[in-house]
Amino acid sequence: MKLTAAVLVAGAAVSLSTAVVGVARLRQDARHQADRNEAVVARNQIDWLAQMSTNPDLAKLWAPKDMGVEEYMELLNLFPALAAS
Q: How many CB atoms lie within 10 A of CB 58?
């Protein structure tokens, strides 16, 4: 094998390995972004539950028509306990 062919093969190998590392990095970044998005959504849900379970005026807006506001607020207080189990 001539020197130029060896250099071309080595360059191609380096380029391929760099591309593989780049793709792996992009996949890892996508997984981390999905994890961050999930954490933000969970925090929003917890905040929403906290507001609904402590503020009767807000709970009144969201309570089903056939359920009283106090009953709805008590029901919302059960969600954190259910999520922990």
A: 15
